[in-house]
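Q: Joint fold for the lines below.
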Amino acid sequence: MVSLNAVEALGLTKRYGRVTACQGVNLLVPAGQIFGFLGPNGAGKSTVVKILLGLVPATQGTARLLGRPYHDREVHRRIGYLPELFRYPPWLSVHEVVDWHARVLGIASRRRAVIEALECVGLADRLHMRVKALSKGLQQRLGLAVAIVGDPDLLFLDEPTSAMDPVGRHEVGELLRAWRSRGKTIFLNSHLLAELEGLCDRVALIRQGRLLYTGGLDAILRAKSEFQVTTGPVPPACQRAWEQQGLVLCGGDGEWVYRGDRERLPELHALLARHRVAVYEVAPIHQSLESWFISSLQDTEEAQDAAHRTADHLGSPPA
Amino acid sequence: MLHIARLTIWEALRRRILLATGVLTAGFLVLFWLEVQHQPRVAVTQNPLGNLSVALGSLALGAFFCYFVIAFFSIFSVSGSISAEIESGLLAPVIPRPLYRAEIVLGKWMGFAVVQCCYVSVLFFGIVVIVHAYYARVLPPAPAIIQAWALFTLQAWVLGAVTLLGSVRLSTLANGITVALSFTMAFLAGAVAQFPFAGTHGSMVDRLAVAMSLVLPTDNLYRRAVYELLGGRQGLLGLNSLGPFGAIKVPSMLYVLYSVIYLGMALMLSVRLFARRDA
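A: Joint structure:
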């Protein structure tokens, strides 16, 4: 039975001497969702995933995967993983690679499971091709086949489409949506934010090993309260009126951007109507995941700088 | 564990390294055969002792080559196993599978052990058959030959385990060089101790040889194997005549027992170190 939360991490910390790769990371990934784990290079994303999968021992903290302790090897039968940097034995064939992993998982109908996994990633016609003959993109497809063989309940994918062409990326996106529709959970590490935007239910942002944000993707995309207002000619009296009422509109020539609460839109609408201004369209401006990602990181940087300045100020001797 | 062992054996069979090793070993056996064939032999009736000496020399030479070839095969086939596989990303998809890390280490050693056993058998019995073809009476009874074979196999397994231990922490090159140099040092310490005056009991050389044999017990296994192969012949026509390549001081079976314990400890330590290592 699938637990309510597929991943529960509590205080995951990894230190290498004085260097901290991640510090007190708490994560909650509900089952049946696609979870995007974001962060700049070296933020600690892969370290967290590696801790969860037993590749890197944690300095502190604990976690549960699918309701079981994360180091329980039995739970790993229900987990698939595509690492960011991986290689399969070049002397093996495509079929042999997936078959070996299916054997380790102890899958009863192994032959069928292997073919199904390879069909899913579009490698069914290359069964006997040697790994060394595969392009980088095809090797990534093979990695995906290895991750999904045995129908795991939880998939960890670290940059799964970084070497793929647009068609491959689209196919992987479709595959992940299909996987989610079957109640599977996908933990996705990726730099391709536009892709994540169309896929994820929830995201988390990590920077310098610390978790900055975790929550629903919808909340992020709707967080920016801006609306595109398309109107006919606006008389100066109308502009003065909205300024007096404290409504903020920028632009001109009938193309305006209203920055403010959604609740004040009827007030704006009434004001425009009073001045006989034709309103053609009022549409919310969605924030992209990328702009949120960049502004969040900049905000944190500024907050840190401010904290440093305060600390310096407090620490400096009086003039 | 068997999954990893199977993959390791599979790799040895599939990769060109086995083909290259097979061809070179065949070449080595042909050269050894030529060496035995072209040795100056006189009629047994004319000089039976001289003939025996030549035959034993051939056998000892074969054993010595066997010792070194097996050692280098064991060291270089294992030296890049764990560190190199982590660095290249080969182990990244494997470790999250429902396998204990100990299974990965022990499975690898088991796979190498099977390959080493096969290689030792081909090389050792190849040499024995060649010697037998020319000097049938020189060879000891079958149980002694089997004992010598088992000791050479144990030597390969010990070196495999030590190299695997090194491969948990060291890079392929550093590991290969470290183990190969340690092996050579162990041989040299054992060789010097064979000289009658240098190696007297309690002398510095003797103590050094004992210390080296504890650090890496391969030399004692070799000397015990030579002792078995020469049928325990002492004296000027036997082990004494081989100088640093012989076994004037025959290592006791306790050393063999120590080697087995040493092998187990090396594997245990590999498992412990690998359990703590990032992958």
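Q: Anything notable?
A: The radius of gyration of chain B is 20 Å. Chain B has ten helices and no strands.
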